[in-house]
């Protein structure tokens, strides 16, 4: 049994539900890693990741944090659908005062063992939302054009990896897939300047609505 946690209020629950809905659209069978050490819950998802730790393909994680009503200690990987089900029940009962989430069993995910640094992030300027949105659109179009319906399995994964792992420019080292994740997870606001940070081979895009963490691109 996974340690329970209690969300701060109904708005927090609704925000988490919206985030997970977008994450599930990007990865229908996806998992979410929930981490809490205190009064903040971090919810990590992986819209783009390679199949194993030794693969050199791109790893792109989404992160959204939310406030808890009381300190909790949680570190578990669970199906997004399981959290959505519990949230839907809580949100359907507006008179509920304790927004408690109790989940059963933690699972394993290849990307959950790839941990971006928690400290040491250096600011590297900003990237405008308009540019990130266009990069995401161009990437989606390129993936669609490069993958005939008859192509599947490892070949399709390799092609997607090449497109989403390619850097948007040499200076930022942001992979194309990070722009795709930021747009797909609803982290971008019109004409917003999105913060860019580097740390230990990783890049981070931070907006008002969430963060995208990715292995720095090595191919351009």
Can you tag this structure with a few keywords?
2 domains; 31% helix; DNA Polymerase III, Chain A, domain 2; two-stranded antiparallel ribbon
Secondary structure blueprint with pairings:
Elements: E1 5-7, H1 10-26, E2 31-48, E3 60-79, H2 80-91, E4 99-101, E5 122-128, H3 129-146, H4 153-165, H5 176-184, E6 193-199, E7 202-207, E8 210-215
Antiparallel strand pairs: 1-4, 2-3, 3-8, 5-6, 6-7, 7-8
Helix pairs in contact: 1-2, 3-4, 3-5
What does this structure look like?
This protein is α+β, with helices and mostly antiparallel strands and 220 residues long. The protein folds into two domains: 5-113, DNA Polymerase III, Chain A, domain 2, CATH 3.10.150; 122-215, no CATH class. Helix content is 31%, strand content 32%. It contains five helices and eight strands. The protein has helices at residues 10-26, 80-91, 129-146, 153-165, 176-184; strands at 5-7, 31-48, 60-79, 99-101, 122-128, 193-199, 202-207, 210-215. The strands form two sheets. A six-stranded antiparallel β-sheet has the order 2-3-8-7-6-5. A two-stranded antiparallel ribbon has the order 1-4. A hairpin with a 2-residue loop joins strand 7 (202-207) and strand 8. The chain starts with a strand and ends in a 5-residue tail after the last strand. The model has no long low-confidence stretch (mean pLDDT 92).
């Amino acid at each position: 049994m996974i340690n329970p946690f209690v969300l701060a209020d109904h708005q927090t629950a609704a925000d988490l539900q919206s985030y997970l809905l977008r994450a599930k659209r990007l990865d229908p069978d996806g998992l979410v890693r929930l981490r809490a050490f205190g009064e903040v819950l971090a919810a990590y998802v992986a819209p783009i990741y390679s199949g194993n730790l030794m693969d050199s393909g791109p790893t792109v994680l989404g992160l959204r944090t939310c406030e808890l009503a009381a300190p909790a200690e949680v570190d578990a990987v669970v199906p997004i659908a399981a959290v959505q089900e519990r949230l839907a029940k809580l949100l359907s009962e507006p008179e509920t005062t304790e927004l408690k989430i109790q989940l059963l069993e933690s699972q394993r995910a290849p990307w959950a063992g790839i941990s971006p640094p928690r400290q040491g992030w250096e600011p590297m300027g900003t990237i405008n939302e308009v540019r990130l949105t266009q990069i995401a659109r161009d990437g989606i179009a390129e993936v669609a054009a490069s993958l005939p319906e008859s192509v599947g399995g490892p070949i399709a994964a390799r092609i997607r990896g090449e497109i989403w792992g390619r850097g948007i420019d040499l200076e930022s080292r942001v992979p194309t897939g990070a722009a795709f994740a930021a747009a797909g997870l609803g982290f971008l606001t019109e004409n917003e300047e999105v913060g860019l940070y580097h740390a230990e081979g990783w890049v981070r895009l931070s907006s008002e609505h969430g963060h995208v963490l990715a292995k720095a691109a090595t191919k351009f």
